[in-house]
Amino acid sequence: MNTIVGNRHDILVLFDVSQGNPNGDPDAGNMPRIEPNSNRGIVSDVCLKRKIRNYVELVKPGRVTYQYKNKEYEQGYAILVQQGAILNNEIVRGITAATEKMDDKAEKNQKAEAAMSWLCREFFDIRTFGAVLSTGDDIMKGSAFGQVRGPVQFTFGQSFHPITPLEITVTRCAVTKEEDKEKERTMGHKHVVPYALYAAKCYISPPFAERTGFTTRDLELFFEALVEMFTHDRSAARGEMVVRGIYDFEHVGSQHPNNAEQNKKEARLGCYHAHKLFEGVKVGLKEGKTFPEAFDDYSISCEWIKNNLPKGVVLHFRHELPMKTIQFQQ
């Protein structure tokens, strides 16, 4: 059954790049982003969300229904934030569709709430990541429903070790302008990271899932997109990018099954600290290595096993197929 997500998830994502630029900085000539104090590489949360949106747009899932509080709703999988989209046009379309059958005497906030709910049901990225809907001069402007906070939130990705970006000069045998014809060829530049392993964190909040209508089907699609986010995003600029690990700590509750209400509350709010769960995944260079040149130079180990996993938490290895899961010890 497709229902609203009711369990908290804390997710650690490991991915790497070889001879590519994982996330260029437009303020630095499109060089790979770098944290200046440590020289570690950075990949923005916006970049990672873009990969998820692109995958969902590519697979174009069909419409599905879900149940919430004994009512049935239908949801679509359109993407609001995409190349060339005019956001206000889509928002106005949502306002029109949601309010055309409402009483003319309905209050502005009622119409804004109805429009927000309609847009969340139609657009996967709104109900997943949230969105600012109060960008036009309509009922959403100034409304509490004009800003939607999504249940899925990423941190910036950061490399485990400092990176040394290379500026590569390339040539082309064609020219752009007629006046450059005598040159025969022109020069260009591209920036690459020889190798780096990054980690990003992701959090899924059931209270916000209830507000936007983020469902268990949406969650399945999100993890599918997370595994495949670089598979259909190949380019010479990004080199070889691979998802190396997805450690999904799902909170399921620590109470006896007979105490269903308390279990549901614990699963919704969480049973253990996220940062301590993440600290159980150890990443370091193998003995004798001083800097990484390839993924094999790293040693990655998960200290969580069935006997020591905190009560009320289940660990899913989403990057392994078939998916491996560690249950907590009863």
Top keywords for this entry?
330 residues, alpha+beta, 10-stranded antiparallel β-sheet, two-stranded antiparallel ribbon, 8 helices, flat
Question: Please, could you describe this protein's structure?
Answer:
Strand 4 (34-35) and strand 5 (40-43) form a beta hairpin. The chain has one domain. It has helices at residues 45-59, 87-99, 108-122, 124-129, 206-212, 216-228, 260-269, 274-279, and strands at residues 9-20, 24-25, 31-32, 34-35, 40-43, 64-68, 71-75, 130-132, 147-149, 152-154, 157-162, 166-172, 186-204, 240-251, 281-285, 298-302, 313-317, 324-326. It is flat, with a radius of gyration of 23 Å. Helix 2 (87-99) crosses helix 3 (108-122). Strands 1, 4, 5, 10, 11, 12, 13, 14, 17 and 18 form a ten-stranded antiparallel beta sheet that branches. The chain has a two-stranded antiparallel ribbon with strand order 2-3. The chain is 26% helix and 31% strand. It is of the alpha+beta class and 330 residues long. It has eight helices and 18 strands.
Task: Give the count of helical stretches.
Answer: 8
Shape: flat
Q: Mind describing the biggest β-sheet? A: 10 strands, antiparallel
- How much of the polypeptide forms β-strand, as a percent range? 25-35%
Cα distance spanning the termini: 27 Å
Helix fraction bin: 25-40%
Rg measurement, Å: 23 Å
Uncertain residue segments = none
Class by SSE composition: alpha+beta
Based on DSSP secondary structure assignment, what is the total number of beta strands?
18
Overall pLDDT level: 93
How many distinct folded domains? 1
Strand and helix order: EEEEEHEEHHHEEEEEEHHEHHEEEE
